[in-house]
Amino acid sequence: MTNYEDDKDHDHEHDHSRTFQADHAEPTSDGARIGLALRELLIEAGHYTAEEEQTVIAAMQDASPRDGGKIAARAWVDSEYKKRLLDNGAAAIRELGYEIEPYEFTVMENDASTHNVIVCTLCSCYPRSLLGMSPAWYKSATYRARVVREPRSVLTEFGVNLADDIDVRVHDSTAELRYMVLPERPVGTEGWSEAKLAALITRDSLIGTQRDLVLS
Amino acid sequence: MNAPLFDVGQRVRIHDRTPAVHHRVPNYVKGQVGTVERVCGMHGEPEKFIRGDGNPRQRIYRIKIQQENLWQEYQGSVRDCLEVEIFEHWLEAAE
Predict the structure, then answer these.
(1) Which of A104, A170, A174 lies at the smallest CB-CB distance from B26?
(2) Quick check: is A153 catalytic?
(3) Which pLDDT tens digit goes with each residue over A34-69?
(4) What is the ipTM, given to two decimal places?
(5) Which residues of A85-123 are buried (b: 16+ CB within 10 A; e: fewer)?
(6) Residue range of the domain that includes A51
(7) Is A151 in contact with B76 (Cβ distance < 8 A)?
(8) Domains and CATH numbers, chain B
(9) Bridge partners of A170?
(10) Would an 8 Å CB–CB cutoff place A87 in contact with chain B?
(11) Is the residue at A8 inside a domain?
(12) If you count residue pairs, one on A and one on B, with CB atoms under 8 Å apart, how many are there?
């Protein structure tokens, strides 16, 4: 193993920090510094290149809830597609040209008697490859701890007031699955184009912290 | 690919143990009984991977637990549930 402290050939001609996310603040916590140091070692040891890392970061940043919206809208207008999406989310999403390796993708459908909501209590697993970066509250200890224990109260705070006869299913993303909620198609959208339907779908409705979509 | 040990709808108990390494079972479901909601694919076992013991693959199941069994003070419908992904080696058949 190379001892980088004593490695006189390692003169830092290359700027390690430049290839990291440019808008990140300088790391101040021990954890952040250790993370950056580990990243430099992995790159220097040849496990991956800084360019490959940038490609992955860019792909995550390019993903957005609009992609999730397009998938949900397709399911609304094509019942056979919806069946495939609920049965094997990853395969059905790949049909539309989205790359979501390596996770199993699970789509949970809201209906008149069921409301689904997603969380990751252990860390902050989120379908980033499909929905882009997660909102700050999704990563907060408060959301993660409370939505499994008192989902109805948390949903009320998001403006979702569920009647008693609507069951809540909370999905804790603890391992290798990623989730997306398929919201209910709003009444009054009969005959709408797929694109117009997709534009109704919000990030929070795909996480489950919104239930009713607003007609625009 | 190994045949799944558990079937959809089967009642299973999640082991109540805390290995001193990274594992993907939250404390609040340890010891709980639920039913298999769906049988998922094979994935790397976190405990072995983190120890450097290779990356053996294990079956994952989605386990459905009724909220009223999880939290004594639970406020909501008796049908409200929580679903969580658990590796096969954390499960045993339950009555």
Answers:
(1) A174
(2) no
(3) 988 999 999 999 999 999 988 888 888 888 899 999
(4) 0.96
(5) beeebbebbeeeebebeebbbbbbebeeeebbbbbbbbe
(6) 28-62
(7) yes
(8) 11-93 (2.30.30.50)
(9) A117, B82
(10) no
(11) no
(12) 78
